[in-house]
Fold this sequence. Notes:
It contains 5 helices and 5 strands. It is 43% helix and 16% strand. It is of the alpha/beta class. α1 (2-23) packs parallel to α2 (38-53) and α2 (38-53) packs parallel to α3 (86-95). It has helices at 2-23, 38-53, 86-95, 106-109, 126-134; strands at 28-33, 57-62, 99-102, 122-123, 138-142. Strands 4-3-2-1-5 form a 5-stranded parallel beta sheet, sandwiched between helices. The chain is globular. The chain has one domain: DsrEFH-like (Hypothetical Protein Ychn, Chain: A, 3-Layer(aba) Sandwich).
Amino acid sequence: MPIYCFGKSLWISVLLLATASATGASERLLTILATDNQETQMMALVLTTQAHNQGAEVNILLCGEAGYLATEIQESKTFAPAGRSPRDLLRNLQANGVNVAVCAIFLPQRELDETALWDGVTVARPPEVAALMMQKDVKLLTF
């Protein structure tokens, strides 16, 4: 059930962020965002932003329909109370040095090319993503 999965992911994310904050440790985070649910996208990026603000080194990988966040092709809903959208948060994270990439198959499956992406968004290379995922000091958050 998607709501249960989101709840579980949210709970794990909150625990990871609380642990990082409590220990003061510098964390490395890979957020993989694949859902098309904009409320889930928003919460994932809120938590990722909080981790970044608390000193985590963050990388974001957008897969499936979430890849559209790094384009101007689809609208991104604005959420209360901040009056911001998932796209707004993603742009802010990127502007603050966060690496944002789309999955390697995102563009070809939609007959798009790299010109559809914002400046600075890259196409992920699976060997590099796998290497990052395998590092013991990297926390993996999936939404």
